[in-house]
From TrEMBL, chain A:
Keyword ATP-binding annotated: no
Any one GO MF annotation of this record: anaerobic carbon-monoxide dehydrogenase activity
Leading EC class: oxidoreductase
Keyword hit for DNA repair: no
Keyword terms, alphabetized: FAD, Flavoprotein, Oxidoreductase
Name of the protein this chain belongs to: Carbon monoxide dehydrogenase medium chain
Gene field: cutM
PANTHER family: XANTHINE DEHYDROGENASE SUBUNIT C-RELATED
Top-level taxon: Bacteria
Occurrences of domain FAD-binding PCMH-type (ranges): 1-173
EC number: 1.2.7.4
From TrEMBL, chain B:
Record-annotated 2Fe-2S ferredoxin-type domain positions: 3-79
Enzyme Commission number(s) from the entry: 1.17.1.5
GO molecular function: 2 iron, 2 sulfur cluster binding; metal ion binding; nicotinate dehydrogenase activity
Top EC class of this enzyme: oxidoreductase
Family annotation (Pfam families): Fer2, Fer2_2
Protein name: Nicotinate dehydrogenase small FeS subunit
């Protein structure tokens, strides 16, 4: 017999998670949870709906950057002008998930915790250097987002823990990010390959900081340090772009399935990383 | 375990009792007697069950009935004013933008949500906004034309 709880505050939610017996599932957007319930992949004993908690709905500026609550929808991220300006790549990744109907419900915290290797927001969040604020019975901890997914559908959260927000760092001048994915259709599809690039340039358009992340080419999204090293200290010339593409293709360890072969995903990863780097560089004000 | 839920549907206060794992779509159809929203896929892919929840377009198959407590639900039944059809309904008929009709309530609600936020959408914007709604018989062109014609009509041009 399933029980439904809709707490009004975070402490109430944490207390419920800690005390509830059996299988406890958090309901935010429900776009994965309810599908799994219907398919009988999961049978919750307790559903904790966090959408009545005001702070979970909010996207707000903090001393350290921007905080996105666990129940803030991806659609609301797209309507948030300051967030879009600071983190265009994170927002474009979040807004690629599903249709308008799904955007009205789905959340990046849900996307992160569901831990699909092809999740759109995860590469962008890792590239952004985002952290997840995790609260549980033993208190709070801040985790780099790449520590949350551990494999397809698996995350590192312990019993009673939940991600309450995503914390994005403050932006240095001349910084920008970008996210690109390849899908056979323009909408309503799952990434065959994806790439996120976040970089900072100096006044001469030389790249001083870079993070490059690929999605859907391994069991989790992966950072590509060799591609980052190829970017840092250079402008975005042909040789740099070629080195980025080569490093990204070399880092791939994808599956072979009907949506893309190993060879195809490996090749396209390099192409997308190059284009994402060009987009991020242009957004940061980079000039050749 | 059933739970009592008080909500507002198409402007009327409505109370219902439902199971915790019952979707808003099932509640609307089986308990409230509003069968306009349809179940196509039941997994949020087809949009036939689209309703507007507190101003936001959602798939009612991916919302639990209990979540509707204290919220406002708009369904296709609330579009017309008695016998007076909503401009979208009129234009869908004029443009023959429906055949079997299963997808139509979802398209109407998605189009309503679009036009509220964007009274003058481009064709591309319409196609993106309706990407979450699938139609297997009429095809999308007539639907897009009907939405364009409605937008022009509602803008008074």
């Amino acid at each position: 017999m399933v029980r439904y709880e809709a707490p009004q505050t975070t402490p109430e939610a944490i207390a419920l998670l800690a005390s509830a017996k059996g299988r406890v599932h958090i309901l935010a957007g429900g776009t994965d949870l309810i599908v799994r319930m219907k398919g009988e992949y999961i049978e919750p004993d307790v559903i904790v709906d966090i959408k009545r908690i005001k702070s979970m709905q909010s996207i707000r500026k903090t001393a350290a950057g921007t905080s996105i609550g666990a129940a803030a929808t991806c659609g609301s991220m797209g309507r948030h002008k300051a967030l879009k300006k600071a983190w265009p790549g994170v927002v474009e990744a979040a807004n690629l998930i599903g249709s308008d109907q799904i955007q009205g419900r789905c959340t990046i915290v849900g996307n992160l915790c569901n831990a699909s290797p092809a999740a759109d927001s995860i590469p962008a969040l890792i590239a952004a250097g985002a952290q997840a604020l995790v609260i549980g019975p033993k208190g709070e901890r801040l985790l780099d987002v790449d520590k949350i997914p551990t494999g397809p559908g698996k995350n590192s959260l312990k019993k009673g823990e939940m991600v309450v927000s995503i914390e994005l760092p403050a932006r240095a001048p001349r910084s920008a990010d970008a996210y690109l994915r390849f899908t056979p259709r323009t909408e309503m599809d799952i990434a065959v390959v994806s790439a996120a690039v976040n970089l900072t340039i100096d006044k001469k358009s030389v790249i001083t900081e870079a993070r490059v992340v690929l999605g859907a080419v391994a069991i989790t999204a992966i950072r590509v340090p060799a591609a980052e090293a190829a970017l840092i200290g250079n402008t975005l010339d042909e040789a740099t772009l070629a080195a980025v593409a080569e490093a990204c293709s070399a880092a791939c360890n994808p599956i072979n399935d009907k949506r893309g072969t190993v060879e195809y995903r490996t090749r396209v990863a390099g192409v997308l990383a190059k284009r994402a780097a060009q987009s991020a560089w242009a957004r940061a004000g980079g000039k050749a | 375990m059933t739970q009592l839920v008080n909500t507002q549907i198409n402007g009327d206060a409505v109370g219902f009792a439902c199971e915790i794992d019952e979707t808003l779509l099932d509640v609307l159809r089986n308990r409230v007697g509003l069968s306009g929203a349809k179940e196509g896929c039941g997994t949020g892919d087809c949009g036939a069950c689209s309703v507007i929840l507190d101003g936001t377009l959602v798939c009612s198959c991916l919302v639990l009935g209990v979540e509707a407590e204290g919220r406002k639900v708009e369904t296709v039944e609330g579009l017309s004013d008695g016998a007076d059809l909503h401009p979208l309904q009129t234009k869908f008929i004029e443009h023959a933008a429906l055949q079997c009709g299963i997808c139509t309530p979802g398209f109407l609600m998605a189009a309503k949500a679009l036009l509220k936020n964007n009274p003058d959408p481009t064709e591309e914007e319409i196609r993106y906004a309706l990407a979450g709604n699938l139609c297997r018989c009429t095809g999308y062109d007539k639907i897009v034309r009907a939405v364009q014609a409605t937008a022009a009509d509602m803008r008074g041009s």
